[in-house]
Each structure stands twice: as C-alpha cells, then as structure tokens.
C-alpha cells in the first residue's frame, strides 16, 4: 500500500502505510503515527489562520521493527485462537476487535517518545498555501491533499467497516475546510460524491 508521492524538494518519495500496518505512515525518510499526521491535517483544516505547527517524526528502522512485531503479534493471536476448543471461547477471545485495534492504533506511553527515536519537526504552510513543508520535504497543496485523503481513507483499499474515529474527523474537516490548501482535494471529494450518487 505504498503511496508514491511527488515532492517539490526531493522528487518522488515513498509515502503512505507500511503494508497492512496502518498505525504508522511514512514520508520519505520520516515515519509518523497515522493519528498524529491526521491531527495535523485536521488542525490546518479547522484553523484558517494557522500556518505552522509541529509533529513528532520517528526513525524508519524503529518502525520497520514495529511492523514485524505487529505481524508476529497477529500470528500468535491466530495460533491462540486456533487452540480454543469451543465456540464460546472463540467469541470471548474477541480476536477480530483486537486485530482492528492493533492495526490502526499504537499506544504511546507519555514522555516515552525518546525510546522510539522521536524528534519534533516543524510543519509550515507557504504564504499563498500552494505548498506545505514537513521537515525537509516540500509538497504541493494538491499532492498533500491527496496524501491526506489517502491517510483518512485508510490507504488505497480503505478502512472497510472499521473506520477509526480520527480518520472520520479528518475527512470531514477537509471536506468542510475553506482553506486554499485543501481546495483541490475538496473539489475532488465533491466530484467523487456526485458520481457515487
């Protein structure tokens, strides 16, 4: 589910989710908690005068490890469920709900960002809102809007029936925002909605 993102500063970079591991998203050499990146999108959508904020970015290697741990966790959970002997025990294990939660959310312990090689980087919108700078990457407003939609939508295949609340809020905030930054993606969303009706 890699998103090839065209940046103005570094050409085309790999972005988007780590395969099926959607708790984190990447942008070139950066890795972010998906929720945090969506919160930045929402913040700018709801605050027309805001042109700057910050976000914690993480080391890519740390989160390739987290992706592998995520896969191992799923395998163990499936093995445990396979050992359940009764239908009641299977229902009580609530595996499907656990898998959904692990997939979309990662629980950070407060003040523990250093453990994950976290670093606060600036996020700034250009004066005319034609681009946004996330750390060292400069992205046009249309490309950023596309990336924001991709994240809120749950990648190319979508969240299915299990849309995280933060993703729903992010999508609504982009649709209702009057910012120039989101103009193109807002028009795309309106067009898509008309065609689907």
What do you see in this structure?
It contains 7 helices and 8 strands, in the order E-E-E-E-H-E-H-H-H-E-E-E-H-H-H. With 197 residues, the chain is an alpha+beta fold. It has one domain (2-196). A hairpin with a 2-residue loop joins strand 7 and strand 8 (137-140). Helix 2 runs antiparallel to helix 4, helix 5 (141-153) packs antiparallel against helix 6 (165-176) and helix 5 packs across helix 7 (183-196). The longest helix has 23 residues, at 60-82. It is globular and about 55 Å long. Residues 109-115 have low confidence and may be disordered.
Give the structural class: alpha+beta
Proportion of residues in extended strands: 15-25%
Radius of gyration over alpha carbons? 18 Å
Number of strands: 8
Principal-axis shape equals: globular
Biggest sheet layout: 8 strands, antiparallel
Q: What is the CA–CA distance across the termini?
A: 27 Å
The strands making up the biggest β-sheet line up spatially as 1-2-3-4-5-6-7-8
Helix content: 40-55%
When the domains are counted, the total is 1
Unreliable stretches (pLDDT < 50, length at least 5) are: 109-115
Mean pLDDT comes to 81
Q: H/E element string? A: EEEEHEHHHEEEHHH
Number of helical stretches of at least 4 residues? 7
């Amino acid at each position: 589910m890699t998103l090839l993102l065209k940046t103005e500063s570094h050409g085309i970079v790999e972005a988007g989710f780590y395969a099926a591991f959607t708790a984190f998203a990447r942008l070139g050499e950066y890795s972010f908690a998906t929720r945090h990146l969506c919160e930045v999108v929402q913040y700018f959508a709801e605050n027309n005068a805001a042109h700057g904020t910050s976000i914690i970015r993480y080391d890519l290697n740390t989160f390739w490890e987290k992706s592998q741990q995520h896969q191992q966790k799923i395998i163990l959970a499936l093995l445990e469920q396979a050992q359940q002997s009764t239908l009641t025990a299977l229902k009580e294990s609530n595996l499907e709900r656990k898998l959904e939660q692990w997939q979309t959310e990662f629980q950070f312990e407060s003040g523990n960002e250093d453990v994950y090689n976290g670093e606060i980087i600036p996020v700034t919108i250009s004066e005319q809102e034609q681009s946004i700078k996330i750390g060292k990457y400069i992205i046009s407003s249309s490309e950023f809007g596309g990336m924001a939609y991709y994240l809120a939508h749950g990648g190319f295949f979508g969240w299915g029936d299990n849309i995280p609340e933060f993703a729903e809020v992010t999508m609504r905030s982009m649709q209702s925002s009057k910012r120039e930054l989101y103009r193109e993606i807002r028009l795309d969303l309106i067009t898509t909605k008309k065609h689907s009706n």
